[in-house]
Structures are given as C-alpha cells and as structure tokens.
Amino acid sequence: MPATWILISAFAVALLGYFISSRTVGKRNGAHLPPGPIGLPLIGNILQLRGSQHHLTLSRLRKIYGDLFRCSVFGRDIIIISSEKVARDLLDKRSTKFSGRPSAAGYSAMGLEFNTGFIGYTDTWRLHRRFYHEALRRDVVSRYHSVQLRQAHALIVNIAAQPEGYEKHLQTFSASVILSAVYGYDAVQKDDALVAMVEHVDKLIAERVFSFEVLLASGLPFLLTTPTWVPDFGVKRALSLVREVVQKTTAAPFEYTQTTLANKTGNHSMVGDILRKWEDQSPPQDTVEALKNAAFTAYTAGAETTQSTLLTFVYAMLMNPEVQARAQEQIDAVVQAKRLPDLNDRLFLPLVDAILRETIRWMPSAPIGLPRSTTEDDVYEGYFIRKGSFVVVNIWEIFHDATRYTDPMSFNPNRFLRPDGTLTDDTSYTMIFGFGRRVCPGQYFADNSLWLVVASMLAMFNISKAKDDEGEEMEPDPHWVSGITQ
Ligand code: HEM
C-alpha cells in the first residue's frame, strides 16, 4: 500500500477514536471538561502549542480561560494550571491521582523511559525516590557542602582568569558540582570529557522534551515503527539520535564510580554511598539498573536548571547595579574582605537570599516544570479531568501574578525583605521545584549550590555591562530559549 494511504488510513482511525472518546467521556456526573481553546479535528491544539516559550502562550490563554483550562493534542487532554491554589489542591492534596508522568511513546523513543522524571507512578519510581531520599534529603545535604564550596571556588578562579567566558564557566560549574555529588567524580576545570557529555545530553533532552517530534510520536506512535520508506516527518531519526546519546551517558559516569569503589578510592557520593552499603555482596542487577538510571536523571535534571538560574542572576545584576552594590556591602560587612562567604554565613546575608528568590521568581528556569499525568478520573470544582490527561503547571504565570507580586516584570528583591532587612516568610520561590510527591528531590542541594555561587560572585566581582571600542556600555541582548528550562 502506498505510504500516503497508510498515513491517511491511520489518520482516519485516530480521528474516529478522537470523536468517539470526546463524545462519550467528555463529561461525568454533570461535570464538564475544563474550558479551553477550540482545536482542529484530530490534531487539536498542536499548532497553537508549537514553538518555544510555551509559558507565554499558556499565559495568554489563561487570560481567556482562567486558572484551570484544557488544550488537547490528538485526543489527549492537556490540563493547564495557572494558580498556586489549584496546583496545591490537585498536585499536593490529591497526589495519588496526579503523580503520574505522561507515558508518551516519544519519551521512550528517546530512551527516557527509565529516567525518574519520565517514569510513571510505579514501584521502580518509588525505588528511585528512596535513593534520592538517602542521598539528597534536607538533613543530609550538608555532606556535600565541601564539594560545593570547592566547585564554587574553582568557578571564581575560572571567571577571574577569563571573565568573558563566564557563560561556559557557569555551565562547567553546574555539571561538575552534580557529577561530584552523584558520582564522586572530580572534573578537570577545562575540557573535561564527562562534563562535555553531560552538557550535550542535557541540551538535547531540554530541546526535545516538549518538541513537535515528541508530541507527534506520542499522538501517532505507529510513526515510530513504520518502515523507513514511510514518511515520518523526521521523527524516528530525531528521537533515536537522542536515545543513542542517553544510553552512552547513563553508563559512563556510573562505571567510573564502580571502578573507584573496586579500587577502594573515591569520594562521598550518592552512587558510591549506596553501592558501598552492599560491601562485599553484589547488589541485585535490578537495583544496580535503577540506581544507574536514578543517578543519570539527577545529573541531567540538575545541571541545566542550575546553569540557567545562574545566567539569569548575572543578567539581573547587570541590569540592577544598585541591588548588586547593596548586596556587596552586606557581604563585606560579614566577611570583612578576608575570605569568601560560605553556607554558615547564610543567616547573616538576607539580601543574598532575597536576590536568589527574586531571580527564580523573575525568570524561572523551569517555567512550566515537568508535565504530570493523571492516573485516575477526577472532578475538581465542577470540571471533569480524565485519567491519562497531561497536567502542566504554568509556574511563570503564577510567579507573574500582579495581584501577588506588585509590578511583576521588574526585578525587585525587596519584595522578599521586611523593612528591617530580614527575610519575609514568603518562600513561594520553592514552587520552582514542583509539588507533591514528585517534587524535585535535588532542591536542597540545588538551593545550596545556587546560594554559594551568588554569594561568591557578588563577593569577588563587579558584574557590569561590556564596553564597545569607544568605551560606551553595550546593552545586553539576552535570548531566552525554552525546552524544560529557559
Ligand atoms: C535550580 C535547580 C533545579 C530546578 C529548578 C529543578 C526543578 C525541578 C522540577 C520543576 C521538577 C519536576 C517536579 C514536579 O513534577 O512537580 C524536578 C524534578 C526532578 N529533579 Fe530537579 N530541579 C533542580 C535541580 C535538581 C538537582 C540538583 C537534582 C539532583 C541532584 C534534581 C533532580 C530531580 C529529579 C530526579 C527529578 C524527578 C523527580 C520525579 O519525577 O519524581 N533537580 N526538578
């Protein structure tokens, strides 16, 4: 059968399924599907959701459809949440129903089916969370302080030696600090092969995770198995390229830790500490596989998000020199220009924390978080949410709600400070790490890494605009690109 006919038949079957499903399960017990933009038959709203900067598209739609609305792609509902109350009601309080992840065929095609961030609400996921709990929970992350401090100091040395390469140095810091914590791997500061691998895989995943190819493969999974002569819009090739890189990158650092353990060397690390508990016994193969995948997730989830937050911090300081000067004054008063700040100084440097909170709020690095999916039907405030719906929280919109944050587009750390200069109780910035049972397990580690870099950079450098040949300041021209992070 010619390729076009195969495609037309498949579209027709999917179209029929779409109409049957939307007619029969569009409401339950008087509850209706949430409102939302009207889509095209079969493909739904995919064209409206194409492109980057999804948070801005979704923010525009919120103005029309409210805090809970629905888009649809190939008959699959995508529920968009745009208020903290709805996010807490559903993702925190009803977490048994809202803790799934979309089991999209597109993710499996990229080799991410074993990645914690993409596996469903299953026993394997619980095992991964146990590993993170052992290694990264709030009361144990202090075991990484010395590694984080060492990496922050290496970053300062690198920037001092080559300030114009700050972007690359922040990227190296973000990858190295996680490689140290997760695998006990001490990266060399320049051109480290493993760091380069992490950076590459991170970029690929971030670009592809909400991409057209993934949406298409998830809506029309047969595209992944058609013979090569059937047109597939480049989906198979795009996703299998990611798969190859993911497989290579999962194995390499894990083998490094195994070797150091066998040689009785190696630093403290999540993988090393967990494997060490087995002492002379070999851990079961499925435990080893789960640990390998959990570790891979940790570094891919942590590197890009950390780097992106730090780049935003640099931009915020460029544009707000008076805030920078006030923070430097506060730091100088505490460290007396004798040393770099460390985490023991945190209580005495509220402005540094306020700058970090405002950086996260102003330009959140993960503006729509990671999509969830529902594992059961549910009804919320008269709206019917179907089992298997994707759920997205538009963190960007929550952080730019003018009724909560006055003049939300301006960078103003004072909103997190009381008149006496102490920090307010507003910890809403932690929403950047998600909600409920799937909240980011690396949040305490990430928070410490970010604080250390922000404090150290403020202590050591004046962040200012570059000058042109005539000595005139040049205006920065940031480009916000978004995938998972922006
Ligand atoms: C600024 C830094 C970071 C940000 C903004 C961030 C943000 C997030 C977000 C929004 C999620 C999804 C949560 C949800 O579904 O509600 C997540 C999940 C995750 N994060 Fe982070 N993260 C950061 C750093 C880290 C670090 C440093 C690690 C590990 C060392 C890490 C490990 C993970 C893992 C394993 C998941 C998947 C959790 C699951 O699905 O159960 N993250 N992160």
Automatic annotation (TrEMBL):
InterPro entries named among the record's database cross-references: Cyt_P450 (IPR001128), Cyt_P450_CS (IPR017972), Cyt_P450_E_grp-I (IPR002401), Cyt_P450_sf (IPR036396), Cytochrome_P450_fung (IPR050364)
PROSITE patterns cross-referenced by the UniProt entry: CYTOCHROME_P450
Cofactor(s) the protein requires to work: heme
Origin species: Coniophora puteana (strain RWD-64-598) (Brown rot fungus)
Binding residue positions for heme: C440
Protein name: Cytochrome P450
Keywords on record: Heme, Iron, Metal-binding, Monooxygenase, Oxidoreductase
Pfam family, one: p450
Coiled coil: none
Associated pathway: Secondary metabolite biosynthesis
Record SUPFAM superfamilies: Cytochrome P450
Superkingdom classification of source: Eukaryota
Transmembrane portions of the chain: none
Stated family: Belongs to the cytochrome P450 family.
Entry's Gene Ontology molecular function annotations: heme binding; iron ion binding; monooxygenase activity; oxidoreductase activity, acting on paired donors, with incorporation or reduction of molecular oxygen
Classification via PANTHER family: P450, PUTATIVE (EUROFUNG)-RELATED (PTHR46300:SF7), P450, PUTATIVE (EUROFUNG)-RELATED-RELATED (PTHR46300)
